[in-house]
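Tokens for chain A. Residues wanted.
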């Protein structure tokens, strides 16, 4: 198994427009953006090889592929479940999702993953960002501090797993097959 790479940078608990917390992790992976994006969109069982956050994940409503408007069900390693919807889909540069239904303590949760060519040819800078708002409002100041810490830890672990996936021959083979199917 490939050695896990640590994220290049993490910003946890900062506020987006002063309104809600944002957690972010950045890593450079040794694959081109098209392949880096494809790895990020792998599904079970390949997804479970690299993504330590996901315990169960599948498309809903009869969908078989990701795309704008498609919904997914995800159960985390914590046992929490969420239905999210793709709100942007622009391979190989970015993907965005928002929570449709999820844990009671999230009033709002959304995430965006960006993939850009790195300065080293054939490599990609992956930037993953989550923003959220907790409820109830009177607990928000404390809940969002705790949420920033927990989500910051999870996003760091997740992007490190993703970096390992970008070096895993089985994950890369599955991602290449998905790219070939798109042609």
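Reply:
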């Amino acid at each position: 198994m490939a050695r896990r790479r640590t994220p290049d940078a993490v910003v946890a608990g900062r506020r987006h427009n002063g309104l809600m917390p944002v957690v972010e992790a950045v890593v450079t992976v040794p694959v081109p953006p098209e392949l880096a994006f494809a790895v990020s969109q792998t599904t079970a069982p390949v997804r479970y090889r690299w993504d330590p956050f996901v315990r169960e994940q599948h498309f809903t409503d009869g969908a078989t592929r990701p795309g704008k408007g498609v919904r997914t069900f995800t159960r985390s390693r914590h046992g929490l479940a969420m239905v999210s919807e793709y709100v942007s889909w622009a391979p190989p540069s970015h993907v965005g999702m928002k929570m449709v239904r999820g844990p009671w303590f999230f009033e709002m949760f959304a995430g965006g993953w960006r993939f850009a060519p790195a300065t080293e040819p054939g490599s990609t800078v992956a930037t993953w960002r989550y923003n959220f708002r907790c409820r109830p409002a009177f607990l928000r100041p404390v809940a969002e501090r705790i949420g920033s810490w927990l989500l910051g830890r999870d996003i760091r672990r997740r992007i490190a797993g993703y970096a390992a996936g970008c070096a895993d021959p089985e994950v890369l083979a599955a991602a290449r097959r998905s790219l070939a199917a798109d042609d």
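The first strand starts at residue 9 and ends at 16. The mean pLDDT is 92.
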